[in-house]
Design a protein that fits this description.
By secondary structure, this protein is mainly beta. 7% of the residues lie in helices and 45% in strands.
Length: 133
């Protein structure tokens, strides 16, 4: 049931690094490549005689405002729809362009759904949910 983001990173150690270690010519560093087109089912060809690590990030969560959020009720209620077992941080800010988003809650759920209720003040507030590495 895991749904990865469309991009991933592949770290490889193989014949080029092994030959560099033996000859002293070339890079001993682990090779890093970005790949696209990642989905729950995707194909990727690995170099022969290599060890590879594929880093898959989860898709971004999305917020769904609740119908229970009514002007004048004093509360803003929303649902975070993410992935099961993935930690998400809910952040708030008064300006969408600000780099200073404040973490107000961190959650990991078995279902991927997080319900959040927050008191509403007179100032505008923006909310977002982000994957917590």
């Amino acid at each position: 049931g895991y749904v990865p983001s469309s991009g991933a990173t592949v770290y490889s150690y193989g014949i080029p690094q092994d030959q560099a270690a033996a000859s002293g010519v070339g890079s001993l560093d682990i090779a890093q490549a970005s790949i696209s087109g990642v989905s729950p089912n995707f194909n990727y060809t690995f170099p022969p005689y290599s060890a590879n690590v594929v880093v898959l990030l989860p898709t971004a969560p999305f917020l769904i405002p609740s119908a229970a959020s009514q002007p004048g009720s004093g509360q803003f209620i929303f649902q975070v729809n993410g992935q099961p077992g993935v930690p998400y941080v809910i952040q708030s800010c008064t300006n969408l362009n600000s780099p200073n988003w404040i973490a107000i809650s961190t959650n990991t759920t078995a279902s991927g759904l997080i319900y959040f209720t927050n008191s509403v003040s007179s100032a505008s507030r923006f909310y977002r949910a982000a994957w917590q590495p």
